[in-house]
Amino acid sequence: ALISMRQMLDHAAEYGYGIPAFNVNNLEQMRAIMEAADATDSPVIVQASAGARKYAGAPFLRHLILAAVEEFPHIPVVMHQDHGTSPAVCQRSIQLGFSSVMMDGSLGEDGKTPTDYDYNVNVTRRAVEMAHACGVSVEGELGCLGSLETGMAGEEDGIGAEGKLDMEQLLTDPEEAAAFVKATHVDALAIAIGTSHGAYKFTKPPTGDTLSIQRIKEIHARIPDTHLVMHGSSSVPQEWLEVINQYGGEIPETYGVPVEEIVEGIKHGVRKVNIDTDLRLASTGAVRRFLAENPSEFDPRKFLKETVTAMRDLCIARYEAFGTAGNA
Ligand code: G3H
Ligand code: 13P
Ligand code: NA
Ligand code: ZN
Question: CA 203 to CA 209: how far, in whole Å?
Fold first, then answer.
């Protein structure tokens, strides 16, 4: 059944687990996520980005998610809109039947320009008023995703600050987070701790200087009842980078957020963990390998089935590691 994010995250907080929120763009991702959730008895958050809406069209995404609910009626599902850039964008998703929206007021309507605190409070509060009147949950964001080493957001297209950010924007301030939650009544808060979107998060495995799990602990200590959200939380599996590069890809050395660090965050209030890049890497690796090993195959179902299996196994691993398994 389709449920609100608030309901799902409240359960996760009560029982001390986290939920991966996987981005969805196509049938294969949707199937992989649901088959993994079914195999592990996990609740599901699927999210549609602006890029996904542009690729598949909002009605197709909506019906993909509704089809998942129909085929797996025993699994609770949150239909979430990722990174809305204005209250109007959130309003359209609410009208389409999304049960949760993200109002990302940390960036302007262009999805690139960092905003000030008052702007963020204003747009987020407006989105919350509208959404709550419809029984829909809202995730806000305070701080800007980006590398603590370089100050860059990392994402070339899509959502991400343009230009260099300063330290103050890169690590969410616990006091400001408390004031923000109080002023906006968001159901969940995305925080900045040194992660960024995409595959190029860290040039070497992250340390406490480049990925601040410590900051999560400080924020959680200040606002223990707020559900925290980690964006840019793909782990960038080295095994998949190897497969991609072995079969003709060229992805330079790069590292993501280690699963153990996310698990540590979950012990300190992180309830929603956004993952997109890992599914992209797994499906690209699976397609490259299959086509290289089966050069005479031309039925897309053959190689797309490989992507479903690859993504499903990755989702199962995250459901198990985050303690989501067994909570559907
Ligand atoms: O917010 C970032 C997600 O990875 C979505 O990316 O806009 O390319 O779908 P996208
Ligand atoms: P990744 O690029 O690390 O998968 O993050 C996705 C995300 O935060 C979507 O909002
Ligand atoms: Na941001
Ligand atoms: Zn994000």
Answer: 13
Reported in sequence order, the residue ranges of the chain that DSSP labels E, i.e. its strands, are 19-23, 44-48, 77-84, 100-103, 137-142, 188-191, 227-230, 270-275
Half-sphere exposure of 135 (CA within 13 A, CB side): 8
Average pLDDT over residues 182-200: 98
Is the model's pLDDT at 156 over the cut of 80? no
Supply the pLDDT for residue 157. Answer: 66
Ordered by start, the domain boundaries in the chain are 5-321
Q: Ligand 1 pocket: which of 22, 45, 46, 49 to mutate (most atoms <8 Å of CB)?
A: 49
> What ligand 1 atom has the least distance to the C-alpha of 276?
4
Global ipTM: 0.95
* CA separation for the pair 237, 278 (Å, rounded): 7
Residue 194: CB within 6 Å of ligand 2? Answer: no
Q: At the topology level of CATH, where does 5-321 sit?
A: TIM Barrel (3.20.20)
- Residue 314: its pLDDT value, please? 99
Q: Which two tokens stand for residue 150?
A: 């370089």
Range in 60-74, 125-139, 158-172 the model is least confident about: 158-172
Residue list, CB under 5 A from ion ligand 3 = 106, 141, 144
- Please indicate whether residue 276, judged by its CB atom, sits closer than 6 Å to ligand 1: yes
278 lines ligand 1 (CB under 6 A): no
Amino acid at the residue 234: S
**Ligand sitting nearest the alpha carbon of 153:** 3
Which tens digit of pLDDT belongs to each residue from 2-24? 999 999 999 999 999 999 999 99
Quick one: which atom of ligand 1 is closest to the CA of 83? 1
Closest residue to atom 5 of ligand 2, CA basis: 232
User: Is 80 exceeded by the pLDDT of residue 97?
Assistant: yes
Residue 158 has pLDDT above 80, yes or no: no
Distance 145 CA to ligand 1 centre (A): 13
Residues identified as active-site: 82
